[in-house]
Amino acid sequence: MTFSEWQQLAPEAAARELRRRTEAFLSPSQRRAALAVLPEESELAAAFAGSRPGNPLRGVPYLLKDLFDVAGMPTYAGSLFLPEVRAKPESDSRIVQALAAAGAVMAGKTHLFEFAWGLTGENAHYGDCEHPRFPGRTTGGSSSGSALAVAADVVPFAVGTDTGGSIRVPAAFCGIYGYRGTPGDALISDAVPLSPRFDTAGWFTRSAADMRSVLDALVGPFEGGPAPRGCYVEMPDLEPQVAVACRAAAAGLARLADESTRGELLARFAPAAEVYGVLAGAETWKIHKKWAERHRAQYGPLLQDRLERARGISPAQVAAVEPSFEALVLAWKRFFQAYDFLVIAASPFPALAKADCTPANRLRMLDLTTPASLAGLPALTIPVPLPSGLSTGLQVIPSDPRSRVFAWVLDAVESGAAKS
Predict the structure, then answer these.
(1) What is the pTM of this model?
(2) Catalytic site residues?
(3) Which of 100, 183, 327, 352 could anchor a disulfide with 356, C-beta 3.0 to 4.6 Å?
(4) CATH number corresponding to 1-420
């Protein structure tokens, strides 16, 4: 269902339809894995009734990643213990307020990879989120419950976060659209942090038109002007089917980068995953060190391992990666002097089976996502279907989310879809 189809329903019918879709499209185990909070039908009907006519997202339901606060509702962040160490929220997060002002209806909260510290749909406490059409394969994460709910068509959009790829990877795996904002903006300012230097807010939609509607409501207005200049860089270590599909999909948006541009970017991007691991890990340890010993047994095994590694990051290690970090940021600045946006793959492979959610494959994903994360850049993920029925995605990366790039790209995608 599109935004406009939801908007045609009366409040009681919308509430009933949302509950029906939850039960029909998600198995009991996947409901537990994906949904942290789902209000009763009467509460949902009241929420739909409270959405005022005339607002751009009036009557459109969404689910909220459980890193953001809703007044009077505990925020778990995919963990077991966060409400024990954090006061119950007395007000809504800024993104919830902004969406309410635009008329959107908060229809529940979603689970995530514990404390948003991972790129798969795994969670030791609530269960793993699986691809809705390929059980046994991950949705990707950390915004796993939000991605699953949109991919399964339970809701037309859902809020997530992206620090090192937590919107871009699940959007690619699930074949949906994903938007990643910029660090430090108002929409991420009061979320439970992972690494404040790199944390961003964003969302998923099933269609380009609906993505444009949310962008217009929360990010716009967009600048006008001529068609933006972009180029496509084929990243190393892509699976052959992904490389072929991404190259074909990118051809409608941007030309191939010249050898000089490609060589410069690949050289500066090469250490990005390592640099990100050190800088983000050091920040995350500062947040968790006050809980790490007292609540160690309440963290899942993956988090316990990551905490131990983050604990060991020294000031000398941070200093050692700073030159690579600065060189990468400078390379982006030089790139944007010649181009308006870069297109690269969002995942090196389609959705992974549980057994393939390994540290090595995590690094392969971070190789693609961390170049934009380190530079604090926004990104739009465009789904790219594969012959197998699975999917990957393209990252479209401009220097500013308010530039004309995202509007132009979404218009181009819609136009291409209409022609096909």
Answers:
(1) 0.97
(2) 65, 142, 166
(3) 352
(4) 3.90.1300.10
